[in-house]
Structure formats: C-alpha cells, structure tokens
C-alpha cells in the first residue's frame, strides 16, 4: 500500500518568506510526528499529533513554527519568516495507533533558505 | 530518552555478517532498544526492537546483553543495499501514545563489494 508521502520534495525560499510543508500519512494511522534533520545531525523531534490534536509541541524551536492536522489525516507544517538556520530536511512519520513501536517515515522535504 | 553511544562508521564486506554495537549504560528497566536505519536521501526505516530477550526478524537479529547496557544489531548477510546510517535508540512505550524518538548521530555502515 501507499506509504507516507510529503510535498514538496525540495523547497528553496528566500529568507523572511513563509513556507508550508505537507504530509500525507498512511491511511488509518492516528499518530503523526514531525522531525527535522539538519546537515550531519540526527533527527530532532518537533511535534506529535494524535488525531487532530497536538498534545506535544515541545520540539517546535520557535513561535515561527506551527502545524495543524485536519480530518485526522493530512498535516501541514508552517514556518513563518524563514531564517537560514531553518534549512534542513523535514521528516514526517505516522504510526497506526497509540503506543505503537514502529513509525513509518516519509521521504522528507529538503528546505533551503537563501 | 537517554543517550546511546555508537561508533561513527564501520565497513563490512558484502555477504559477511555486519555487527553494529551500541552502548546504552543508562537504560531503564522499561525502556526498549530500537534500531532504525536511514538510507541516503530517504526517511528512517524501522528494523527491530527488543526489551530483554534476543530478537530476530526478516531483516536482522538483535542481541541484548544480560545487564541490558549494550546491544548488537546483526545483519547476517550484508548486501550493498544495506549501506545506510544505523540508529540505536532506547525508549519507553508511553501509556499516552506519544512515542517521539530521540535519534543520535548513528553508525554509518558501508558495505564493500
């Protein structure tokens, strides 16, 4: 079946512009996570959704970052007034239910802020 | 999630067993050991997990020491497609459903033809 998909695959934007990144999780997966991976670094947790609610936003690095999830499915991560340090690969993962040990990751969106 | 220690890189000949070590001396009794891998330009992929006992699946085997302070991921017959960064993570299953994972920098495994 279809895996987690993310769009766009690559995004180049100018400093100060807003960007939206999209994640389509596997159908029926209730848990959704956003991570980011800077060059040469491990993955950094950003936010967790269970259904449409986000009980854990502790990883969002600043108030320029926000995310929403509608209909318990698609999620968008929005970065306002982008900065060069926001350049990274943004990864989305979903899992089937609460307390699931396996997360399925999408291919990521590579964001470059010039 | 507490800290793991992995060698930054390893090489393995194609067809041989690849043994990837991980130290997790501060692991708690309820924390599982997970392994994920990330092939270049792809998202991470779950491999295997375990608590106390050794585990095996179609991808790999996981050997956990009796004191649980270290583990080894074994790829029994490495192929070129196994070239990737391998992450060892430990994490307690949450009763609240938030299974956010803390990834370190992992081991870059290169399979040599």
Detailed description of the structure:
The complex is a heterodimer of chains A (114) and B (113). Chain A is 0% helix and 50% strand. In chain A, the strands form two sheets. In chain A, strands 2, 4, 5, 6, 9, 10 and 11 form a seven-stranded mixed beta sheet that branches. In chain A, strands 1-3-8-7 form a four-stranded antiparallel beta sheet, with no helix packed on it. Chain A is mainly beta and 114 residues long. Chain B has 113 residues and is mainly β. In chain B, strand 3 and strand 4 (45-50) form a beta hairpin. The model of chain B has no long low-confidence stretch (mean pLDDT 91). Chain A binds chain B through residues 4, 31, 33, 35, 40-45, 48, 50, 55-56, 59, 91, 93, 95, 97-108, and chain B through 32, 34, 41-46, 49, 87, 93-106.
Would you spell out the secondary-structure blueprint of this structure?
The complex is a heterodimer of chains A (114) and B (113).
Chain A: E1 5-7, E2 10-13, E3 19-24, E4 31-37, E5 43-50, E6 53-56, E7 65-69, E8 75-79, E9 88-95, E10 104-105, E11 109-113
Parallel strand pairs in A: 2-11
Antiparallel strand pairs in A: 1-3, 3-8, 4-5, 4-9, 5-6, 7-8, 9-10, 9-11
Chain B: E1 9-13, E2 18-23, E3 31-38, E4 45-50, E5 55-56, E6 61-64, E7 70-75, E8 84-92, E9 107-112
Parallel strand pairs in B: 1-9
Antiparallel strand pairs in B: 2-7, 3-4, 3-8, 5-6, 6-7, 8-9
């Amino acid at each position: 079946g279809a895996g987690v998909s993310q769009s766009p695959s690559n995004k180049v934007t100018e400093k100060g512009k807003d960007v939206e990144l999209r994640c389509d999780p596997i159908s029926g997966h209730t848990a959704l996570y956003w991570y980011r991976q800077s060059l040469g670094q491990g993955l950094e947790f950003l936010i967790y959704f269970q259904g449409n609610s986000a009980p854990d936003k502790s990883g969002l690095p600043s108030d320029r970052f926000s995310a929403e999830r509608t209909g318990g499915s698609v999620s968008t991560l929005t970065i306002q007034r982008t900065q060069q340090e926001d350049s990274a690969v943004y990864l989305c993962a979903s899992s089937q239910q609460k307390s699931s040990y396996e997360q399925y990751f999408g291919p990521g969106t590579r964001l470059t802020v010039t | 999630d507490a800290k793991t220690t992995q060698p930054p890189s390893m090489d393995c000949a194609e067809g041989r067993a690849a043994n990837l070590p991980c130290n997790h001396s501060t692991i708690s009794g309820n924390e599982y050991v997970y392994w994920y891998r990330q092939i270049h330009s792809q998202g991470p992929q779950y491999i295997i997990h375990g608590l106390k006992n050794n585990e095996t699946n179609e991808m790999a085997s996981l050997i956990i020491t009796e004191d649980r302070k270290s583990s080894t991921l074994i790829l029994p017959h490495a192929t070129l497609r196994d070239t990737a960064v391998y992450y060892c993570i430990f994490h307690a299953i949450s009763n609240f459903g938030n299974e956010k994972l803390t990834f370190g920098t992992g081991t870059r495994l290169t399979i040599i033809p």
